[in-house]
Amino acid sequence: MYVDKEGGIAVDDCEVVSRALSDLLDVEDFIEDSYILEVSSPGLGRPLKKEKDFARSIGKEVDIHLYKSIDKQKEFTGVLKSYSKDEIVLQLDENDVSFERNNVALIRLSFDF
Hints:
The protein is α+β, with helices and mostly antiparallel strands. It folds into two domains: 1-43, no CATH class; 51-109, Roll (SH3 type barrels). It has helices spanning 11-28, 51-57, and strands at 61-70, 73-83, 87-92, 95-100, 104-109. It has a five-stranded antiparallel beta sheet, with no helix packed on it. The longest helix is centred in the N-terminal third of the chain and has 18 residues, at 11-28.
């Protein structure tokens, strides 16, 4: 199970959810087979998929990977300026570039380690 909240998730949060969920699963006992319960946060490299993911990432640097190349390039890094159901707009250097949403294979926050 993945858990998330405003401000992020700490190990203690995962532990609280794990204990509560484990107790509930034991009481309800609706899973007949043995199982392993894992609770974690989605992580830094998770893709932006939901409306709230995009909304909280406006103004942040993202990596975008395309299905079809544009000028022989499939990967771009820029600042997320806006999004809609049809397009994603990134600021690349000084220019805003629009990407068709159906050509986007993956978009996630950009991190340099």
